[in-house]
Specification:
Blueprint (H helix, E strand, L loop, with lengths): L1 H24 L16 E18 L7 E4 L1 E12 L4 E5 L2 E10 L6 H4 E18 L6 E14 L20 E14 L4 E11 L18 E15 L1
Antiparallel strand pairs: 1-3, 1-10, 2-5, 3-4, 3-5, 4-6, 5-6, 6-7, 7-8, 8-9, 9-10
């Protein structure tokens, strides 16, 4: 319920802002804010946002599912934008991403052993191509996509303990591809850009337990990150 309420407040805020922009942002005779902003070869900005991380789990043998409880996390980072053409930009958006996922293994009888808390603090390095539409008044929609690399500062990869000692281990590094949409809103003094994107891990992040028949990792073939990012950018 807290998540739904939080999302509702965000959507309500975006909706109210949209109503404010509606009359003057799309009007043909409106004053165009920051008219030459996109003509810059290079510009910089920052973003704040939140995330919802998940795992895509492939099992070796069909059996009881492993359940993932997702939690809302936060993002903060910087933006470097290189203008390639009138409609295409190259963007580098390094940031700090914090999230948490709780794993539940229904095949384990002991309730304490059946749960594993996986906290992740990622240094996120995405390199993205941004494809923008033609600007209409003070609004410009766009889509973007690209590749990213993550360094997991919370990884237990170097630990000699495994799940037999209540330690769930993931690799330090992973790679992803990202796809998203957003909209540039040209305000009087700055450009505001809300966006939403999906991130999809491309490699197995699981470090298996020493016991090949481990109740936690023995039946996992592949475990890769996936998630949703919502960022609010300021340029």
């Amino acid at each position: 319920m807290r998540k739904l309420f939080f999302c509702f407040i965000i959507l309500l805020s975006i909706s109210s802002q949209a109503q404010l922009f509606r009359r003057n942002m799309f009007a043909k005779n409106t004053l165009r804010n920051l008219e030459n902003f996109d003509k810059q070869r290079v510009h910089f900005g920052f973003y704040l946002g939140f995330n919802n991380y998940d795992f895509k789990i492939d099992k070796k043998i069909d059996g009881k599912d492993i359940f993932v409880k997702r939690s809302m996390g936060f993002n903060v980072g910087l933006i470097s934008n290189l203008r390639l053409t009138e409609y295409i930009d190259l963007r580098f958006e390094p940031g700090l991403y914090y999230g948490q996922r709780d794993l539940y293994f229904p095949g384990i009888a002991d309730e304490n052993d059946a749960f594993r808390e996986v906290k992740s603090t990622y240094i996120h390095f995405p390199l993205l191509l941004k494809f923008s539409s033609k600007r209409i008044g003070n609004v410009r929609p766009y889509v973007l996509g690209g590749l990213s690399a993550d360094l997991n500062l919370s990884s237990n990869a170097d630990s000699v303990d495994d799940n037999s000692a209540n330690r769930f281990r993931l690799t330090k590094n992973t790679t992803n591809y990202e796809l998203g949409i957003g909209i540039d809103l040209y305000l009087e003094y700055f450009k505001f850009s809300p966006s939403i994107r999906g991130v999809f891990g491309m490699k197995n992040e699981l470090i298996p337990d020493k016991d090949p028949n481990s109740a936690w990792t023995g039946n996992i073939q592949n475990m890769a990150t996936r998630g949703i990012f919502v960022n609010f950018s300021f340029h």
